[in-house]
Design brief:
It contains 16 helices and 5 strands. By secondary structure, it is of the alpha/beta class. Strands 2-1-3-4-5 form a 5-stranded parallel beta sheet, sandwiched between helices. Bound molecules: fe (ii) ion (2 copies).
Length: about 350
Amino acid sequence: MTIHIIADSTERISGLRQSLGSQDVTSSLLNDATGAPKSSDAVIVRADFTVARNLVTLKALVPKLAKVERRIFIVDGRNRLFVSQAYALSATHVLETPVNGSRLLATLRQAETPCRSQPVVAADPAREASAGGARSLASMFSDMRSGRPIDVADARAAAAAIADAIAEQRLSNWLQTVRHHHEGTYQHCLLVTGVAAQFALKIGLPSADVERLTFAAMLHDIGKAKIPLAILDKPAKLTDEERVVIETHPAAGYDALVGTAGVSDETLDAVRHHHEYLDGSGYPDALCAPSISDVVRILTISDVFAALVEDRRYKPPMPRPKAYEILCEMRGKLEAPLVGAFREVALVL
Ligand SMILES: [Fe+2]
Ligand SMILES: [Fe+2]
């Protein structure tokens, strides 16, 4: 494996070279860097994100970095915002300090696995849409955490690219591509968007409705930016208190987006109500069937299915037939004819 290091000081470059031992390593200083050599298998980026000039330089490097398959950013673990910024700067994996040699090498090996089983195709719409979608989500989550308005146009374009990729390729290709995404919440949102797009195409929604649905799917969990990661990524069952906290995310997303230009009432409804069930047992408003829109019903089915089939560090993906069985068992909560129509999305590879 060939690895290129980009760092903002010679000390950091030396430290990383030492950690990588006998690996085939090249390096450049951030402000002299023109990107990583195209032939590199991985690039490791280490820079101080509190220095504005570093962020500007890295942003300019994104198109070149994106040509390298594995992009590992090492960020200061004391500020969670840096993780979002790293993903927004095209990272495929983010490590928070302190990082030792064995952790770095383990991440490089982990990053290598999907690439071996999935040869790089020059223009793979799923990979490109997944990378673009992840960047857009990272920016949105970062903006939400900082109280800045989100980039609506960017999210809309990312959703449209995902819908196009789904129209062009099979859903199973999308699931396989997106499941490799390291950051669980982004993986989930990308999965929901792809599943919703496939569902919309399957039931023959007009293209304007596909766009509205996939845009809502991209935004649906934006309120999770306000939930502590210790709860969001907890690798065990949540306590009752933690569940109360996580259940604040639909209203938090709604509150943050209300009044944002380009975000319609229909999208706000989807963000706020994607955990409502027809029998009134959902949250935050315990709506019943007549108050739950068609967009929300479709989104909720896509959301539940995506949550079951996603691949998290603590949870292997559930096989699609099993996930569909669970949807079928949610009688009274989800719209039965829609669940019936979803069969083909869930089971056809
Ligand atoms: Fe949610
Ligand atoms: Fe969700």
